[in-house]
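**Folding the chain**
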Amino acid sequence: MTTATRLSRAGDRSAFTLVELLVTVAIIGILAALVLPAVQSAREAARRADCANHLKQIALAAHEYHVALGSFPPGLNQFEFPSAPRFRGTSVFVFLLAHLEQGNLAAGWDYGQPLNNTEGGPAARSAAVLPILICPSDLIEKNPVERGGRYQALTSYGGNGGSRSYDPDLATVDGMFHTTGPASAPKPHQQPVRIDEIRDGTTNTLLFGERHHRDANFDTFAQASWTDTPIRSLGTWAAIGGRKRIGDVTMSGFAPINYRLPFDYAHRDAASPPAGNAAEFAYYEDLRVSAWGSSHPGGANFALADGSVRWISETIALVTLRALSTRAGGEVVAEY
């Protein structure tokens, strides 16, 4: 056998066959399929932890505000003006700016004429996107959003509005944050909440929680002008202009966690109770705007009135969620 022949055969033995190559590719694919969910799960765990830390900082800011001023901030301190939009206000998150390391933004805020804070287009004070007010898992399509030519940035969080937070005329005002001031609802001149009013105990009362910005079914009703704000644009932290803006900064125990509208505009005839017109649809609007929720699988993060943060499953009984939402309901809260 010649030297050339020996070299050729040695080369043949060291080469991959097509079958071996396909097996190798298949093994790599299987390993990738096994590893990818673990990587995604680890990333979501990190995002959920970041979100919990945001809520912790917001809760601490609210307590610092209480120490300084003797009460928690209003959900929305609201006034009525003669020009449109007639109702304008200052939200809980505006009052907390100085306690969330946003002193410069707070110092330049116009509390007397809140609409002035929307001037400047996308560079307006109300359009500032504040990372501490955004959950890393929240799927926000566009931020800031534009309403009537004015820009306002969104938040993934809201204050506890009690057993029902929306529509404001139907609000129960039994939670931690509601409208205050001359144009407050359902009664004028409502006052913010003090810590000594939390008679159910601070460990049994929600303070802040999450909202998520995806509900394709609901948004079809906004396209049909049955509601003025799609879910993807709900939750402006400044909540400046409009009678119903308390819905931007509070949620409640009125709906289950992660509630989404179970039908779209085209299939509204299947709704029970009926949703045959805009007036009937208002019930479903109230449910959805009031709903806590998140893009984390299976539940949402909440800050309690004692400053601690807890994960609450979306399977929690509605009666228990409502008990956690009231500050002085006298309910016995079961394990959750």
